[in-house]
From TrEMBL, chain A:
The protein, known as: Dipeptide transport system permease protein DppB
Organism expressing this protein natively: Actinomadura macrotermitis
Classification of source organism: Bacteria, Bacillati, Actinomycetota, Actinomycetes, Streptosporangiales
Gene Ontology cellular-component terms listed: plasma membrane
Assigned keywords, A-Z: Cell membrane, Membrane, Transmembrane, Transmembrane helix, Transport
InterPro entries, A to Z: BPD_transp_1_N (IPR045621), MetI-like (IPR000515), MetI-like_sf (IPR035906)
Gene name as annotated: dppB_1
Membrane topology: Multi-pass membrane protein
UniProt record, GO biological process: transmembrane transport
From TrEMBL, chain B:
Main location: membrane
The protein's name: Oligopeptide transport ATP-binding protein OppD
Phylogenetic classification of the source organism: Bacteria, Bacillati, Actinomycetota, Actinomycetes, Streptosporangiales
Membrane-topology annotation of the record: Peripheral membrane protein
Single GO cellular component term: plasma membrane
GO annotation terms (biological process): peptide transport
Gene: oppD_5
């Protein structure tokens, strides 16, 4: 088990390295493919006052004329030990972990990420917990009461959940709960550390909106899985052992039905961030999604790169956790 | 003293296509320490009967009685039934891989059962008993294998583990549902040996469900042959092998490979088992029977006593008896041999002469059918004797 985890960790580090390399490569190549010289890029950085000295200074500071590998090395070095940016005579030291400065606002990218990431991850993780709990519970009850009013109702809701886009359910829920019935405040992000209660209160609607879509899918998956496992021979064995029905369902039935759910959850984590970005936009939260969008539309390489690395890290870590959970859940996986 | 006595068990499943009448009035009993073999094709109702006794057939319409140790299993509330399952009646199933939970350690699955029925047992004590049981069923290094998962066991070891689980609480009755069907032939013999040894050791009653007459020959004291949800024939083991009466039993015996006295080719029973939704009229076996008479198509034969004859001197036993060196038939005229067939009750056995006698009897019955149709009761055996 420990060896399995170590192996997975090594793979995760390798993956992160590849992600950074590929993303860096894309942003290095794109301007070249668009036919822009390094002068053009530097000019855009300078803004109105373009002088040859200024251009040279910017190019030197950002290393625009350096080769790909040198620039990539500079980037990696910044993350681990920090790096210096020289502009003319002035030197800006960027302590580790340094991911560069925004070309637009000159803010350190790492601080930007620290500022924005909690918003997106709060939405994503909260929604994931909610959808797993709701989806699995509804799925199990539906499977055990197949054909009942609950089952049919839940599966109709599930169909609605899968079909309705988040920006629709999100806006409808704001309209209903915040405007019509005034049960909830209009969502606005509050830091978790400030006041967890208001944090959660503000996040309820984004969570429900995002979770609705996935909970619907997971309810259907769990229902199908439970229907299948409850017909397995080992369920009959569990009953023949004289176990109470509750143990048969949870310990023997659900345990098996959960294994594929975990796998699919691992795959959905990537989508989850995408969903969180749409959700934060729907609710006007300034999260990673907004930052990413700005970074890309304004050719702000360090910001776009930083957001990509942060989301990549999140997906990899989440997958690592899921894989370990999976190995715990299904002993047969550990041999592979 | 009968440990389990089942009377007129009927099980039906309502489905979208109609009511599946899986079991239609079966009675049988098992005494402590003895073995009842239940034989039949798939769909004959053999597994459904026993699983219904344990309350493992959800959605079934059940009637009848099943007296186990002074209590009617079929009338028992679920809470009480749970205490019977596992603790007083153990079950062994056909496919040990799919019958053990793939995500739990083998030992844990045994411990779970022990602690369910004996909540006072500590984890360590229950585990110790699981190790003991695994050792008892012949699993090497049981103290280490107790922490293995089912997929780390071989097929035979998995079935040994299932047996260990079934026996862990020393139940009075074990129901083994095709316990060797999924195993290699060599492993089959080991498992049967093991079950016989443990049965003696624990003085457990055993119901052995199988379609393999070789297994029955090895294990059973009494045999119940089921067809289409009913008894076809009931007899002591030897009687059944030497003096089968029901053409279905005869067909089963003749279709066993390696049966001595049956030449080079196997003789299959033609046709398929009946649909349990649209059962044939009369005797359910009549569409496949080579001795079918007019009467068989109309009347369902009741289970009646067979009065067997003495075996001819030097007669070779037919059927799947291994070795052929068993003692001669122990002829009991105590009503233990019963068969649900209209053929004369003297027509028992497997040799060519009996086959001819059967054929003659069925033809004679059809020839006289017009006159003797209403003369029910003792005919046609009255004329033959």
């Amino acid at each position: 088990m420990i060896r399995y985890i170590i192996r997975r960790l090594l793979v995760a580090v390798l993956l992160l390295a590849i992600i950074s390399l590929v993303t860096f490569g894309i942003f290095f190549l794109l301007p070249k493919l668009a036919g822009q010289s390094t002068d053009d890029l530097a000019a855009r950085y300078l803004g109105r006052e373009v002088t040859p000295e200024g251009l040279a200074g910017v190019k030197a500071k950002l290393g625009l004329d350096d080769s790909f590998l040198v620039r990539y090395w500079h980037f990696i070095e910044g993350i681990f030990v920090g790096t210096d940016y020289k502009f003319g005579t002035s030197v800006t030291h960027c302590p580790a972990p340094c991911m560069g400065f925004s070309y637009r606002t000159n803010e350190p990218v790492f601080d930007l990420l620290l500022d924005r990431a909690p918003i997106t991850f709060s939405i994503a993780i909260g929604a994931a917990v909610l959808w797993l709990l709701a989806g699995v519970t509804i799925g199990v009850v539906s499977a055990l009461r197949r054909g009942s009013a609950f089952d049919r109702g839940a599966m109709s809701m599930a169909l609605a959940g899968v079909s309705l886009p988040m920006f629709f359910t999100g806006l409808v829920s704001i309209f209903l709960f915040c405007r019509q019935f005034k049960i909830l405040p209009t969502p606005r992000y509050e830091a978790f550390l400030g006041n967890p209660a208001t944090w959660a209160q503000n996040l309820i609607l984004p969570w429900v909106t995002l979770a609705f879509l996935y909970a619907a899918m997971y309810a259907r998956l769990t229902r199908a899985g439970m229907l299948e496992t409850m017909g397995e021979d080992y369920i009959r064995t569990a009953r023949a052992k004289g176990l109470p029905e509750r143990d048969v369902i949870v310990r023997h039935g659900l345990r098996s039905a959960l294994t594929p759910i975990i796998t699919i959850f691992g795959l959905d984590i990537g989508l989850l961030l995408g969903g969180a970005v749409i959700t934060e936009t729907t609710f006007s939260f300034a999260g990673l999604g907004q930052l990413m969008l700005q970074g890309i539309t304004r050719s702000d390489l360090p910001v776009a790169l930083g957001v990509t690395m942060a989301t990549g890290l999140f997906v990899i870590v989440a997958n690592l956790v899921v894989d370990i959970l999976y190995a715990v859940a299904d002993p047969r996986v550990r041999l592979a | 003293m009968k440990l389990l006595e089942v009377r007129d068990l009927r099980v039906a499943f309502p489905t979208a296509d109609g009511v599946v009448r899986a079991v239609r009035g079966v009675s049988f009993s098992v005494e402590a320490g003895r073995t009842l073999g239940i034989v039949g094709e798939s769909g004959s109702g053999k597994s459904v009967s026993t699983q219904t006794l344990m309350g493992l057939t959800p959605g079934a319409q059940v009637s009848g009685e099943a007296w186990f140790d002074g209590q009617d299993l079929l009338a028992m509330p679920e809470r009480q039934m749970r205490r019977v399952r596992g603790a007083q009646i153990g079950m062994i199933f056909q496919d040990p891989l799919s019958s053990l939970h793939p995500h739990y350690k083998v030992g844990w699955q045994i411990v779970e059962m022990i602690r369910e029925h004996e909540p006072d047992t500590g984890k360590a004590a229950a585990r110790k008993r699981a190790v003991e049981m695994l050792g008892l069923v012949g699993i090497p290094q049981p103290d280490r294998r107790v922490d293995d998962y089912p997929h780390q066991f071989s097929g035979g070891m998995r079935q040994r583990a299932m047996i260990a689980m079934a026996l862990a609480l020393h139940p009075k009755l074990i129901i083994a549902d095709e316990p060797t069907t999924a195993l290699d032939a060599t492993v089959q013999m080991q498992i049967l040996d093991l079950m016989r040894r443990l049965q003696r050791e624990f003085d457990t009653a055993l119901i052995m469900i199988t379609h393999d007459l070789g297994v029955i020959a090895d294990m059973a004291d009494d045999v119940l042959v089921m067809y289409g949800g009913r008894e076809a024939e009931v007899a002591g083991r030897r009687t059944l092998y030497y003096r089968p009466h029901h053409p279905y039993t005869v067909g089963l015996l003749e279709s066993v490979p390696s049966a001595p006295g049956v030449g080079g080719r196997l003789k299959p029973i033609p046709g398929q088992p009946p649909s349990l939704i649209n059962l044939p009229s009369g005797c359910v076996f009549h569409p496949r029977c080579e001795y079918v008479m007019e009467r068989c198509r109309v009347d369902e034969p009741p289970l009646r006593e067979v009065v067997a004859t003495e075996p001819a001197p030097g007669e070779e036993p037919a059927g799947a008896l291994p070795g052929g060196d068993l003692p001669r038939v122990d002829l009991r005229r105590d009503g233990t041999h019963r068969s649900a067939c209209w053929l004369p009750h003297t027509a028992v056995g497997l040799d060519a002469g009996v086959a001819a006698a059967r054929r003659a009897a069925s033809e004679a019955a059809d020839a006289g059918a017009g006159a003797a149709e209403d003369a029910d009761g003792a005919e046609p055996e009255g004329g033959e004797r």
